[in-house]
């Protein structure tokens, strides 16, 4: 595990310093990038934010963008690759395990809690897209998370169940059969997360899917470790997961949800907001779509300014 002393050694002059870190989630080693305000000292008591990337993303994309903006405002921010994804370990790689991704948030809080320059009573969590769903789920359980925010929140389980409809049972059967084949030594079977190119899209596909292809599969934000591969054995894990099932009973922390005024996935943000019974706020940047909030100005700055205000007031 990366130590506080190692992190603080050689901080570069400037508004923000980014440090590569690693920390465990059980037997899996998670790789992250910790963004710190310049001048952080061993006895600083910074408010700190865990930042979870979207499904299929990596820490170098929009999670890192927001982590840097938070650090520019004087907060510590940790963006990290999920278990089985990016630079993090776990086999088979490119597995989407919502339960592991939820526990990744706990592990990230564990790590921040070991750092001398972090205020252990001022840790918050931010998630984007599916990472927002995982972050809300984790915040229902982990009382060390004192404030929670989500951008373009997405319930990956609810979305998958709706998309599959009456094909759900057949999908589960196929995944179960494939798992047996892999247990016997056959190679892991992968499927694409999203269409691999714009040419593979249909006009009838949802707007956010068109946006995702433009973001992940073009030079706009393409990254070699965001592989667009999904292990088929992910499907039962995704289908069985519900991001919001404990919100009404257990989410008591202050909640900020950011969802573009033109987002076609806003219904997930609205669902989470309606279920939450504590202090809550919805911010809808005018003109922003689901993916525009990942990297398009002025929406990113608008969202970041709201996040900074929210975390500073609630941590």
> How many H/I helices?
12
Largest sheet properties? 8 strands, mixed
Task: Evaluate the radius of gyration.
Answer: 19 Å
Number of strands: 10
- What's the assembly state of these chains? single chain
Shape: globular
Structural classification? alpha/beta
Q: Spell out the helices and strands N to C.
A: HEEEHEHEHEHHEHEHHEHEHH
Mean pLDDT: 95
Helix content: 25-40%
Q: Hey, roughly how much beta strand do the residues contain?
A: 15-25%
Low-confidence stretches: none
What is the strand arrangement across the widest sheet? 1-2-4-3-5-6-9-10
Distance between the termini: 26 Å
Task: Outline the structure in words.
By secondary structure, this protein is α/β, with parallel strands linked by helices. It has helices at 4-8, 62-72, 98-113, 130-141, 156-164, 168-183, 207-216, 234-239, 247-250, 266-275, 292-295, 299-314, and strands spanning 16-25, 28-37, 46-52, 76-80, 118-128, 145-151, 190-192, 229-231, 255-258, 280-283. The strands form 2 sheets. It has an 8-stranded mixed sheet, sandwiched between helices. Helix 2 (62-72) links the parallel strand 3 and strand 4 (76-80). Helix 3 crosses helix 4 (130-141). The longest helix is centred in the middle third of the chain and has 16 residues, at 98-113. The two termini are 26 Å apart. The model has no long low-confidence stretch (mean pLDDT 95).
């Amino acid at each position: 595990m990366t130590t506080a002393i190692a992190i603080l050694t050689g901080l570069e002059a400037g508004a923000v310093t980014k440090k590569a870190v690693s920390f465990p989630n059980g037997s899996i080693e998670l790789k992250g990038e910790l963004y710190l305000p310049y001048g952080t000292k061993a006895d600083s008591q910074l408010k700190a934010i865990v930042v979870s990337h979207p499904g299929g993303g990596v820490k170098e994309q929009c999670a890192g963008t927001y982590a840097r903006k938070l650090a520019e405002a004087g907060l510590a921010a940790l963006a990290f690759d999920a278990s089985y994804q990016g630079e993090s370990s776990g086999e088979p790689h490119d597995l989407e395990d919502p339960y592991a991704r939820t526990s990744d948030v706990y592990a990230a809080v564990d790590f921040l809690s070991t750092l001398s320059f972090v205020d252990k009573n001022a840790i918050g969590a931010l998630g984007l897209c599916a990472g927002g769903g995982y972050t809300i789920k984790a915040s229902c359980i982990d009382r060390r998370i004192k404030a929670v925010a989500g951008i373009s929140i997405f319930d990956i389980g609810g979305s998958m169940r709706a998309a599959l409809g009456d094909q759900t049972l057949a999908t589960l059967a196929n995944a179960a059969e494939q798992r047996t084949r892999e247990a016997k030594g056959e190679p892991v079977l992968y499927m694409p997360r999203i269409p691999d190119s714009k040419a593979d899209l249909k006009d009838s596909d949802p707007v956010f899917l068109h946006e995702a292809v433009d973001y992940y599969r073009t030079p706009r934000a393409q990254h070699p470790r965001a592989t667009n591969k999904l292990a088929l054995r992910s499907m039962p894990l995704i289908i069985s997961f519900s991001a919001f099932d404990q919100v009404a009973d257990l989410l008591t922390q202050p909640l900020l949800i950011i969802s573009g005024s033109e987002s076609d996935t806003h219904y997930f943000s609205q669902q989470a907001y309606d279920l939450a019974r504590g202090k809550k706020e919805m911010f809808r940047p005018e003109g922003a779509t689901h993916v525009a909030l990942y990297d398009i100005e002025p929406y990113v700055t608008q969202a970041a300014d709201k996040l900074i205000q929210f975390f500073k007031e609630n941590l």
